[in-house]
Give the backbone structure.
Amino acid sequence: MNERFAASCEKGMLQLRWTPEVLITYDVAVRAARVLKGLSGGRVLPLLVDLAGVVGLTPDARAGMNAYRGFSAVALIGDGPMGKVVAAFSRRSLTPTAYFTNGHAALRWLFEQCTRAGSPDRAQQTER
């Protein structure tokens, strides 16, 4: 586990969990992306992100996260004000991204995105 996040890859899905009270800077976001890329073995996989510990994101981190294309889809799970902030800025992401307050719904959405991969009518960013 990194001092600011924990990352894993299980059954073809990447997972990222932020530690409590973390401020995500550009450097921290890049470090997380590099760890996730290493775990993916060069494959473009879906990502499940737990936002429970996030207290803030810098503007550079937001821009970098929206521009990164290393994931097939991203499901964000949160239930506080920061989760809603992340959901709002993630609507500009180049990757299909959705915000959820329920982990089961997030996993179901990621599964749907994986089955639609390559389809021209891939789901747009939504809040669920």
Helices lie at 26-40, 59-67, 81-90, 103-116. Residues 98 and 108 are 11 Å apart (CA to CA).
